Amino acid sequence: MSFDPVMPPYNASDPTARFVASSCLDFLFIELVPMSYRITNELEEVVVASSSSAADAASIPQSQGTVKKMDEEEEREAVFWRLEGIGYRVGMGLVERFSKDRPKFNDTLDVIKFLCKDLWTLVFRKQVDNLKTNHRGVYVLTDNAFRPFSRMSTEAGGQAVVKAQPFLWIPCGIVRGALAAMGIQATVQAETSELPGAVFQIKTIPAKS
Amino acid sequence: MTVFALIIINKAGGLIYHRTFHEGGLNKISTNDYLVLAGTFHGVHAITARLNPIPQQINRNSASSAGIMTRPEPPSGLEVLESENFRLQCFSTLTGIKFLLFTDTTQTNVDLTMRRVYEMYTDYVMKNPFYQLEMPVRCELFERKLTSYIREVNNR
Amino acid sequence: MVVYSFYIFDRHTECIYQKSWLPPPSIQTTTTSSSDNAKLVFGTVFSLRNMVRKLGGEDDAFISFRTAQYKLHYYETASSLRFVMLTDISTLSMRNVLHQIYINLWVEYVVKNPLSPVEHKGGEGVRNELFELGLDQFIRGLM
User: Fold this and answer.
1) What is the CATH number of domain B3-154?
2) Whole-number Å distance between alpha carbons of B146 and A32
3) Does the beta-carbon distance from A151 to C129 stay under 8 Å?
4) Is the pLDDT of residue B63 over 50?
5) Which residues of chain C make contact with B75, given a CB cutoff of 8 A?
6) Can you give the pTM of this predicted structure?
7) pLDDT at C65 over 50
8) CATH architecture, domain defined by C3-142
């Protein structure tokens, strides 16, 4: 990932040329979500198993099979924080690397524009299509063809929009991390009403002075 | 342009003849493998006829105009198979015997060659009083005529 | 050129996708169900593929066969995914077309689809809208 335009000749025989297939990033984004669900559930099982065996192993031996799983909401929360956290860390690192040649930011809008143009291109290979703000710290970014959703599809009536939701959590984290690295504290939420579009809402938290 | 080999399969799926005319065209396989191959092909041939995706329908227009219900052509089985290294043409006689000619991929006019081979079979095998029907073909005259004909084709 | 039907078999030999472009069959004709048909198709191409390898060598590949009524085209990927297409007999080699379906539709809309599982038991994840739409458009564009 780089802003630097690839200069010709960029053929494979050039020993200094380095390329990464963009599919790698696609696959990574795809796999991180089910992986987080797996990790979250496995950790929960370990916790439940160890606590039950430590507390009262003898009384109900069969309890292992029917351990109380997290309910859906808890699972969703746990996975969200896991993915959002990964994204946050990535976002912070990315900005460190790719803002180095930029002139200083004047205000928050400047930062948001950097996010919409440069960072978005870097991570999602296109710019945000629409940026709206209420001028009181809320920014709404609309991407009509959000890259991670470009090939997302299910059978007709397969609730693709609902299933797509967890795939927004890493991008949310990346945005929040990037903003944090540029000195803006914010909460970031994202949703989609129709694939492949996505809407990100950024609420900046004014710094206490 | 080369004819690699000929296989004849009887109506029960048994191998009754196999001859290689050109070394290096096909892998050498044992007679037992040839027997297995004949049986497999026999089965596959029957299935390929059943897989016909086109609905069989009686042609009503021609039937009404002619006043006779014409029986639809029964679906044929596999006739030509192509792979990267060879081409296989199968001729299934009305009596259920199958002739398999293996040639190189550029071979043309296999129909003609097939026809000649079938003629030779009828002339030198079927007309041979010592030949037992459905049994392996061991007729010297057929062998000789076939070999010289194919040599002629391969040198063309 | 007419395309009759299309099948995908995974490396476990299961038929994970099939589609027909024929008008729905009339009652009198079809006695075999579509899943039976898929099994017959797989048995056929598998036998022929093995036969081709036996005779033509390990590097040889089964490309197609035709009967008097239809032509069957075959393409197998390195990952043992098998694509089969039935067309009319005048159609030239469809190997390229099957390869295109593999790289432009399968890889893009099934492999790179975040909502599609890695294994497609019962066709799960293959019958998604983008793949089906892309396939239908591609095939109708050829006809």
Assistant:
1) 3.30.450.70
2) 67
3) no
4) no
5) 67-69
6) 0.84
7) yes
8) 2-Layer Sandwich (3.30)
